[in-house]
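testing teh design pipeline on a random one, pls ignore if ur not involved
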């Protein structure tokens, strides 16, 4: 009999969240992390002497308030500040759209009075749907299992209850449309001017290797509206000290509740004995045993690499071969000698605290996707720039700044069979040049940069094909089908094995939700024995 109740593989934010909840329940928990720092893709690291930045995940908005409260993250040092403006869209003709509290409708009216008048109704519809779906984030979805009629019948009742809630909220038809239609089709129905459609539509392609006109992309847009900052729904912000401040606070919370965390401890294999997960073996050969094994890795890595092949059911093996993962993301962290000056809005101001979107229309985003499919990367890419040092002067020396560039689209595997090792800096140059076109002098202000291709994101952070969601947020990989029908309740097909990462419901983003929900399943199962 093991002394441990649970082993957690991976100290990303969901693994730490799960471990903290298990520790709070009085369980004996040991976390093993491959890297030398906790946090997974939610980390702050020095990438040039004196310059620190959120290396991968780069903005706060989806972290669940319940997780913040339960883990006492503020008491453990977390402080989140809101952007003073939400989004800034500079345009090639010198115009711009700047959204945020108290200014959005006025800004939209510069381009279309009709759109400004319709914006409140659009927000109300999205909020009605979002409120219902937000209530599903911290619970397991109906766990539908084909071939098991009695079990599925009860779960279908849960699904019907969700439908009733949407119906009562006057959002059923709109929700169905969001799940099956494209963001472009949805936004074209609501608005006529390109700038507001671009600002809203950008959320449909964030981390999503797709066009805004790809069916189902409307859901990805909705996914990014689930969160809040400091009690304000739909607002985005910055963690003082970078995104690593979130996971450092989580690690302190877990430690306070008796959880042990080992870094530089890569796991080679999950031990399966008599059909049950029973422990792990590290790369150095050391074995540890526990009553339950919780994995904060992507589903394909779990079933194709960590588990003995003979232990994986055929249905799961087939599912993982068809699992879609690859977000088309290229990340750059930049050290700057000065703030950028945008032609559309020169000088300092609230716009430099916003998410700065360099993609003037949905048509531009559609071309970027199609260009990527043909050539391996978009020749006119989509770039979002965030300058966290405008809100947090701890990240750079006095007078200097750091910027995050979240760039799209690039292919996880290049069409000509070449490696990202050959093209990384060429594509990084293109992204810098894209910013330069909107902010002349930006290139000259770059002191240093860290360029991360999809290959780098996979190698460093374990993101499959660079996928920030651990698997595409498509209809066949969502809700009860994430990661597979019959196993959406965080309990995997091998008894004693659980999934707590972004490959489980509700998907990616720094939410803490999969970790929270998986912990509930583990605690319920251990207490029932």
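output:
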């Amino acid at each position: 009999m093991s002394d441990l109740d649970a082993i957690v593989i991976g100290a990303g934010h969901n693994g730490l969240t799960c471990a903290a909840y298990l520790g709070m329940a009085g369980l004996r928990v040991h976390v093993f992390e491959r890297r030398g720092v906790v946090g997974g893709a939610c980390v702050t690291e020095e990438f040039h002497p004196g310059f620190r930045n959120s290396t991968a995940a780069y903005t706060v908005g989806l972290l669940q308030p319940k997780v913040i409260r339960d883990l006492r993250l503020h008491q453990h040092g977390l402080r989140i500040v809101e952007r003073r403006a939400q989004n800034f869209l500079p345009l090639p003709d010198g115009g711009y759209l700047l959204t945020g509290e108290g200014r959005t409708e006025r800004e939209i009216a510069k381009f279309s009075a009709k759109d400004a008048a319709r914006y409140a109704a659009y927000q109300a519809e999205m909020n009605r749907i979002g409120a219902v779906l937000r209530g599903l984030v911290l619970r397991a979805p109906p766990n539908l299992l084909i071939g098991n009629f009695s079990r599925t019948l009860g779960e279908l009742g849960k699904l019907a209850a969700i439908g009733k809630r949407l119906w009562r909220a006057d959002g059923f038809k709109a929700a169905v449309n969001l799940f099956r239609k494209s963001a472009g089709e949805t936004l074209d129905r609501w608005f006529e001017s390109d700038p507001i459609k671009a600002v809203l539509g950008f959320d449909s392609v964030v981390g999503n290797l797709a066009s805004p006109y790809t069916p189902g992309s409307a859901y990805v847009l909705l996914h990014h509206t689930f969160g809040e900052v400091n009690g304000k729904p739909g607002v985005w912000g910055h963690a003082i000290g970078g995104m690593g401040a979130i996971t450092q606070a989580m690690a302190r919370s877990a430690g306070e509740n008796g959880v042990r965390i080992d870094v530089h401890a890569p796991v080679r294999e999950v031990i399966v004995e008599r059909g049950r997960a029973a422990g792990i073996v590290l790369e150095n050969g050391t074995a540890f045993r526990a009553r339950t094994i919780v994995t904060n890795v992507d589903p394909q890595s779990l079933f194709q690499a960590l588990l003995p092949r003979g232990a994986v059911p055929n249905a799961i093996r087939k599912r993982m071969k068809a699992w879609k993962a690859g977000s088309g993301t290229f990340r750059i962290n930049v050290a700057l000698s000065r703030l950028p000056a945008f032609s559309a809005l020169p000088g300092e101001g609230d716009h430099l605290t916003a998410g700065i979107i360099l993609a003037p229309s949905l048509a531009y985003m559609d071309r970027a996707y199609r260009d990527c499919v043909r050539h391996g990367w978009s020749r006119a890419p989509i770039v979002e720039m965030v300058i966290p040092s405008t809100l947090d002067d701890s990240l750079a020396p006095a007078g200097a700044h750091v910027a995050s560039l979240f760039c799209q689209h690039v292919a996880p595997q290049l069409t000509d069979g070449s490696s990202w090792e050959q093209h990384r800096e060429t594509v990084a140059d293109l992204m810098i040049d894209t910013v330069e076109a909107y902010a002349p002098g930006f290139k000259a202000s770059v002191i240093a940069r860290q360029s991360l291709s999809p290959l780098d994101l996979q190698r460093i952070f374990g993101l499959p094909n660079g996928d920030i969601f651990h698997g595409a947020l498509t209809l066949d990989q969502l809700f009860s089908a994430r990661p597979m029908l019959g196993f959406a309740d965080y309990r995997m097909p091998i008894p004693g094995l659980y999934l707590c990462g972004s490959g489980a419901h509700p998907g990616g983003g720094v939410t803490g939700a999969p970790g929270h929900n998986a912990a509930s399943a583990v605690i319920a199962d251990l207490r029932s024995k």
